[in-house]
Amino acid sequence: MPPRSNPTARQARLGAELRKLREAAGFTTKEAGALLGGNQAQISHIEAGRWGVSATRVRQLATHYEASNTQLVDALCAMAEERGKGWWEDYRSALAPGFLDVAELEHQATYLRSLQTVTIPGLLQTADYVWAIHNGRVPRLPAAVTELRAEFRLKRSRILERDTPPPFEAFIHEAALRMRFGGREVTRAQLRHLRDVSDRRTVTVRVIPFTYEGFIEATQPVLYAGGPVDELDTVRLDSALGGRSLYADTALRKYRAQFEVAEQAALGAEASLQLIRDIEKEL
C-alpha cells in the first residue's frame, strides 16, 4: 500500500505520539524499524501519519519503548483501530483539509472549551450569522463556496445534539456579543440562540464583560479539545490565514492556564445570560 499523501490531523497525531514515545526511550528510527522487522523508512512513515499502524503494533512498540503510561497506550491503540468514516469525509474533495480536521477534532473530543473575543463560537452560530461572517470576507468568495462552507459549519454543531454530546464551555467576550454582523435582526436572533442553547445541560456560556480590567490573550479564536487522556488534548487556533493544531506539552500548559484566566474573568452562567438579555434588548 503506498503512503498516504495527505494524512488527516488525527493520523498525524497518532504518529507524533509514537515518535514522542520512541524519543523518550532513546531509540533511533532505524532501531525502532528493526523492532517491527522492518526498516527506518517504515517507522518514519508511521510517525508522519503516512502509513497506518495496528493496535497490536502500537502495543509492540510501546512495550519495546517501556512506556509506563498504560492509559495513554490504550488511547493510542484505540486511535489506531479507528476505521469508520465521519460525515466530514464527504467534503474531502470540496474543502481544504483544515475544515475537516476541526470537525474530526470536535467529533472525537471528550470535552470542548472555546475562547473568542470578536465572533460567536462556530458551534453556536445561527445560519444567518454564518452567512454574514462568510459574506464579509475579502475578497468575497463565490456564492457556491460560501454556501458549502456555511453548510459545513452548521453540520458541525450537530455534535451538541448527540445522545451523549461532549460538554462544551464557551467563554465569549462582551465585544463579540455587540458586533452587529448581518445587522440588528441577525444579531438579536444570534443572541436568542445563545440563550436557548445554554438551556442544554452540556452547554455553558460565560461572558467576559467589558468591566474586566485584566488582559485576555486571545486575539484569535481558541478551541481546546479534551482527549481520552490529558496527553492527547489538542489546541486549535484559527485565523484569516488558516488554522493550526497544537499539542506540544508546553502549548497545552499555556492554554490550560489561559482558560484558568478566562474562568476568573468571566461572569457566572446566570449573570452571563442576563447580560446577553440586556444586550439583546438594547439592539
TrEMBL record:
A GO MF annotation of the entry reads:
DNA binding
Q: Which Pfam families match?
A: DUF5753, HTH_31
Boundaries of every HTH cro/C1-type domain copy: 18-72
Please give the SMART domains that the UniProt record associates with this protein: HTH_XRE
Q: Please state what the protein is called.
A: Helix-turn-helix domain-containing protein
Organism equals Streptomyces phyllanthi
